[in-house]
Structure formats: structure tokens, C-alpha cells
Amino acid sequence: MAKRKEDITETLVNLDEISDSVTSYYDKYKNIILGVIGGLVVLIGGYYAYKNLYIGPKQAEAVKQMARAEQMCAKDSFDLALSNPGGGFPGFKDIAAKYSGTNAGNVANYYAGVCLLKTGKAAEAVPYLEKFSPSGNMLPQMKASLLGDAYADQNNLEKAYSQYEKAAAASNNEAVTPFVLMKMGMLAEKMGKNKEAAAAYQRIKDEYATTGIGRNVDKYLYRVTE
Fold first, then answer.
1. Mean local confidence (pLDDT), 42-52
2. Torsion-angle region of residue 136: left (phi > 0), alpha (psi -120 to 50) or beta?
3. Whether pLDDT at 1 is above 50
4. Tell me: the pLDDT tens digits for 173-194?
5. For 158-173, what is each residue's pLDDT tens digit?
6. pLDDT digits over 50-77, tens only?
7. pTM for this structure?
8. What does the alpha-carbon distance between residue 180 and residue 152 come to, in Å, rounded to a whole number?
9. Contact 85, 72 (CB under 8 A)
10. What is the end-to-end Cα distance of the chain in Å, rounded?
11. d(Cα 88, Cα 200) in Å, to the nearest integer?
């Protein structure tokens, strides 16, 4: 999550209340996230390289160019990953612009959005995340969840809730969904929507009882149903 401004701290979802793993779900599942995205870049990139004489070479070049920025992102050097990863390689912002139309350029938008969120630049993150076109089940969920974080950081709670709701409906997996539901529930509480909060917490209890969040959700469910 991006750093929150002092004047809206009390208004936003206080994820510290649940666990460090929730406040840093990207960090906890970074290897999964980077692996999924990296696999898409290489596999789909290979397809285009064989099937298209123009996009193929651009894709192959973009994959090579992005390697350094990915390394910086994996090391949590988010500012460097965005603009100056070193060694003469471009950052995610430049890759997204220069290689638009390729899968690598598309993925660079996602990476840029994550890095901007992690450096407290939520407003700048939104356009990059919106440009990212995800595929499969997990990536659309991650995109919506991060957009929710970005809007919450800007105190746009209605938009944040809408994105969390979208993310919660996008997939059903233990790696991401319980965290999304908890953010959704806590934000609903902040907005005075106890019925919606209870529904989110109840889904955690019903579907993810064996997860760390599921084992501790009763106290949150109790406070909105007592």
C-alpha cells in the first residue's frame, strides 16, 4: 500500500488493525505476482515473436529492456524501477510509453502503477493501472484491488469500495481474495455501511476460515452485527 497522508489517515482503511501481511499483501505474495506477470511477458512475448514481424521484435526487445527495472522492483527500489534502474536501461514509465502495443508495454503499466502506489503517488498510479489490460482470473483481481488502494489513498472512498467489490467478485483464491474482502469490509465500516461490512467478513468466515485472516475475522464480524 502507498503511504497515507496524515490528514486522511483516520478516514481510510486501517489495515494495520488486522495484520502486517494485509498491509503488505503485495510484499507477501510478491514472488507469485512477479512470477505470474513475468511468465505472461515471456510466454506471450514468444508467441508474438513468431507470429508478427513488427510486434514480435518489439516485444522481444521490451522484455530485455524491462529486466533491470523488474530487478529493482523485486528489491523494493521502486523509484529506480520507475525511471532509472541503472545500466542504461529504461524504467517502467519509459517502457510503457515506448513499447505500447506489446504485452511487455502492457505489463509495464501494471508495474508502474504498483511502484507509484508504493512510493505514495496514488493519483499518478491510477492512469497506469487503468491502461493495464489483464487476462485470466488473478490479474484482473489484482488490478481492481490496487485501484481500490489508489482511490482510498486519495480519500475517494466510494470509488475505492467499488473497486474492492469488483476485485472480490473477480476471483476466488486464498492468495488474494481474503485480503481484498478484509479491505472491503473495513472500508465499509469507515463509511458506515455495517451491513456490507458484515457480508464481507461473513464471506471470509465461510470461505477462508483456515487462512490467517479467516481465523481472526470473528471479532470484526461481531462488532458490525452486535
1. 50
2. left
3. no
4. 888 899 999 999 999 999 999 9
5. 999 999 999 999 888 8
6. 455 456 777 788 888 888 999 999 899 9
7. 0.77
8. 13
9. yes
10. 30
11. 47
**Between 59 and 98, the higher pLDDT residue:** 98
Hey, what's the cell of 16? 494495520
Distance of CA 179 to the CA centre of its chain: 11
Q: Is 199 exposed, middle or buried (CB count within 10 Å of its CB: 0-12, 13-18, 19+)?
A: middle
- The amino acid that residue 202 corresponds to is Q
Q: Locate 190 and state its grid cell.
A: 469507515
Percentage of the chain surpassing pLDDT 90? Answer: 55
Virtual torsion, Cα 57, 62, 63, 64, nearest 10 deg: 90
Listing DSSP states for the chain in one string gives: -PPPPGGGTTTS--GGGT-HHHHTHHHHTHHHHHHHHHHHHHHHHHHHHHH-TTHHHHHHHHHHHHHHHHHHHHTT-HHHHHH--BTTB--HHHHHHHTTTSHHHHHHHHHHHHHHHHTT-HHHHHHHHHH----TTHHHHHHHHHHHHHHHHTT-HHHHHHHHHHHHHH---TTTHHHHHHHHHHHHHHTT-HHHHHHHHHHHHHH-TTSHHHHTTHHHHHHHH-
Give the integer Cα–Cα distance in Å for 81 and 107. 13
Q: Which residues of 88-125 are buried (b: 16+ CB within 10 A; e: fewer)?
A: ebbbbbbbbeebeebbbbbbbbbbbbbbbbbbebbebb
